[in-house]
Amino acid sequence: MTSRRTARGKDPFFRTIRFVADRWRRQWRLALAMAAGLVLIAAAELALPLFAGQMIDALADSARLRDAAALDALKAFAAIVGLGLALVVLRWGLFKGIIRFTLRMMSEVAGETFWRVQRFSTDWHANSFAGATVRRLSRGMWAFDMLNDTGLVALWPSLVVLVGATFLFGWHWPLMGLAVGVGTVLYVAVTVKLSLDYVTPATRRSNVWDSRLGGALADAVSCNPVVKAFGGEAREDARFGRFLARWRTRTWVTWTRATLTGVVQQGILMMLRVAVIGLALLFWWQGAATLGDVTFVLTAYGVINGYLRDIGHHVHNIQRSTSDLEELVAFHEEPLGVENTLRSTGRSTTPCRSAFRRASASALSDGRARARRPSSSSCSGCTTSMAAASRSTARISPPSRRRACAGRSRSCSRSRCSSTVRSPRTSPMGGPTP
Do the Cβ atoms of 146 and 27 come closer than 8 Å? Predict the structure, then answer.
């Protein structure tokens, strides 16, 4: 297993969870309302198998009158229909709330992260890929969508249903309740352990190379005119190919580990299915369960199996969304470097105008003094700069282009040097000398 500890000594997963919990506390009223609605949804889904078992008992009892049995069956059926309609209404209200909850959180996080990135030091921006920074911000912002949907809409009702189903089974048959409880705890524990210690480290490394790949692609496309000017397309193709190879290797490891985790989860679910159905048949054979009870067990286990299978998917989504959020959380923990002072953020332009006037007056007097005696310092500076440009061009351009650039630099040097030698009677600012 790979350690989840970073260089700062903190677990990135729990650091991200604390960051998300702080965002949830800002809308705690809406979060509590949605949690209460999800408890009602879970209770309604647990009640459906009970009414299904009552309907089967009413229809299978041959000692009762046909009309009375039909009436009891219709009552159970009406209850099932009413619960179905209540589920539709509750889910509609829940998703209206989650849309408002998530959009506000995404917009606030995106705005605050952009504010911090804008105020990072120039050294930080010079040493960071602009494309990778954009990728981290956008990926972290959209990770909140998956995390809120998974944690509030999916994982919380799954836990409520599993606990409630374990209680119902234990109330009717303690041995079956024990089997369901042990199987559920084992499944959840193995799923969480594999996701955190086996899949998450690989996902973190693949996300790093995903950011690097996006940064390399964005920078290569933005610098395409320079690449074309010096014929560097093949070099850029090779460089991008190296990024793709590393990204492919890391992603292959992540997907392979996630697949193996899913196989282990399916094995545990299969063992739990055999135990529950086998105990239901045993109780019916011993006369401790009716046909309605067997129907209740099969229907309730269908609900449990669906939620257990989804729990593995939910844990994977939480692991993935928290991994996507880790780099965005790092932006919020990164120091700003050189922060703006109150004077630098003011809107007053008076000091700037005064400095501009002083600089203009100084340039005017200096230009008049130099106009009286022509100097060749600008000529030598021009020659020096053009020679440096020729050397830098010679390092990156082919021989034919080097000769052409050298000819242009010599002609440009002569023309600029001749233009700097002005008449003693003309000032650099365009007016006559005193």
Answer: no
